From TrEMBL:
<dbReference type="InterPro" id="IPR005814">
    <property type="entry name" value="Aminotrans_3"/>
</dbReference>
<dbReference type="InterPro" id="IPR015422">
    <property type="entry name" value="PyrdxlP-dep_Trfase_small"/>
</dbReference>
<keyword id="KW-0032">Aminotransferase</keyword>
<dbReference type="Pfam" id="PF00202">
    <property type="entry name" value="Aminotran_3"/>
</dbReference>
<dbReference type="InterPro" id="IPR015421">
    <property type="entry name" value="PyrdxlP-dep_Trfase_major"/>
</dbReference>
<keyword id="KW-0663">Pyridoxal phosphate</keyword>
<protein>
    <submittedName>
        <fullName>Acetylornithine aminotransferase</fullName>
    </submittedName>
</protein>
<dbReference type="InterPro" id="IPR015424">
    <property type="entry name" value="PyrdxlP-dep_Trfase"/>
</dbReference>
<dbReference type="GO" id="GO:0008483">
    <property type="term" value="F:transaminase activity"/>
</dbReference>
<keyword id="KW-0808">Transferase</keyword>
<dbReference type="GO" id="GO:0042802">
    <property type="term" value="F:identical protein binding"/>
</dbReference>
<dbReference type="GO" id="GO:0030170">
    <property type="term" value="F:pyridoxal phosphate binding"/>
</dbReference>
<comment type="similarity">
    <text>Belongs to the class-III pyridoxal-phosphate-dependent aminotransferase family.</text>
</comment>
<dbReference type="InterPro" id="IPR050103">
    <property type="entry name" value="Class-III_PLP-dep_AT"/>
</dbReference>
Length: 381
């Protein structure tokens, strides 16, 4: 049997990894400034993370959600405190797409409506409703296009007002910092306005924090950079979806559902979600984020990255926050990415914007790592 050919692959075969370094089958080391799509949040093979998973595997790796699992309660408590979202309830699943699928489903259950407002260049996953809300025609099958989704540009409050006031919208979903879309962001004014209008028109606001959450932006969640002036607090979404960095490579996702939204038996369900190993992995990530001050480090190293990037005249703009960053050139970066991998032995990422190089390292990245990156980039430029 052959593999279903859906990924163009670089000619690199990693066989081990530690911290920021990935080693291939020929013994070549690579600095990892992409983290497998922002998944590696605390570094490859972090000793605390490895110990927690190994220890849990020696006890029990999996049983169904039909029985008690205290590890889920421990995880929810820790996540609520560290994120500042203690007035939410947690549903655990397996991926970002699944998190967004359940978030959209919850919004439809709660409101009794079915239309979704999403935004240009947004990416929310590859499952039914999540992919329908994703602004990429190539990955939307006719089956997905049956969903009622309206895609609007960021920061166009006139267009948003016209759509939300039609009264048939169940959910407004957006990324505080777009990932695949190229690090675009809504303004705080726009974010606050859509939150207010969604509430006034009986729709739920979903913050897709799959990539920008878990400390990557320099705050626990990306939406926390946006202030609600009327209430003197950050924007408060009704639902928050999480994945990627929360498991540091272990497949885990989740949905934070505001406590004002009532649960009922059978509304959501999952076989593997919240299993013992997933809980051990995610709790370990939260403990490392807290104990090593990695969210603060993301903000500090992100600021240093910006300083260094401004020294390079070929860089036309710098996008993003914390360690979720993009540098834009006036040429397409496909060949530059190849040179960074094969000549400089550095992993970086691309985006829908073909002129943008994405930068998503582990949150314990250092200034020395940044210096190595920019020295290599200057050489290739």
């Amino acid at each position: 049997m052959k593999l279903f050919d859906v990924y163009p692959l670089y000619n690199v075969t990693p066989i081990s990894a530690k911290g920021m370094v990935v080693t291939d089958d020929k013994g070549q080391e690579y600095l990892d400034f992409y983290g497998g799509h922002a998944v590696i949040s605390i570094g490859h093979g972090h000793p605390h993370y490895v110990e927690k998973i190994k220890s849990q595997l020696d006890k029990i790796g999996f049983y169904s959600n039909a029985v008690q699992n205290p590890l889920q309660v421990k995880l929810a408590t820790k996540l609520g405190k560290l994120s500042g979202c203690e007035d939410y309830n947690l549903f655990l699943c397996n991926s970002g797409a699944e998190a967004n699928e359940n978030a959209l489903k919850m919004a439809s259950f709660k409101t009794g409506k079915s239309r979704v407002i999403a935004f240009k260049n947004g990416f929310h996953g590859r499952t039914s409703a999540a992919v329908a809300a994703t602004d990429n025609e190539k990955i939307n099958a006719p089956l997905n296009k049956q969903q009622k989704v309206t895609i609007l540009p960021f920061n166009d409050i006139t267009a948003f007002t016209a759509e939300i006031e039609k009264g048939d919208v169940c959910a407004v979903i957006l990324e505080a910092i777009q990932g695949v879309g190229g690090l675009e962001e809504p303004t705080s004014e726009f974010f606050q306005k859509i939150a207010t209008l969604a509430k006034e028109n009986g729709a739920l606001l979903i913050a897709d924090e799959v990539q920008c959450g878990f400390g990557r932006s320099g705050k626990f969640f990306g939406f926390q950079h946006h202030w609600d002036a009327e209430r003197s607090q950050s924007i408060q979404p009704d639902i928050i979806s999480i994945a990627k960095g929360m498991g540091n490579g272990f497949p885990v996702g989740g949905v934070l559902i505001h406590e004002s939204i009532e649960a009922s038996y059978g509304m959501l369900g999952t076989t593997f979600g919240g299993n013992h190993l997933a809980c051990a992995a995610t709790t370990a990530v939260l403990e490392v984020l807290e104990n090593e001050n990695l969210i603060e480090n993301a903000a500090k190293i992100g600021a240093y990255f910006n300083e260094k990037a401004k020294e390079i005249p070929q860089i036309k703009s710098i996008k993003g926050k914390g360690l979720m960053l993009g540098i834009e050139f006036d040429f397409e970066v496909g060949e530059l990415r190849k040179k960074m991998i094969y000549d400089q032995h550095i992993f970086t990422g691309g985006a829908m914007n073909k002129k943008l190089l994405r930068f998503l390292p582990a949150l314990n990245c250092t200034k020395e790592h940044i210096d190595i990156f920019f020295n290599a980039l200057k050489e290739e430029l």
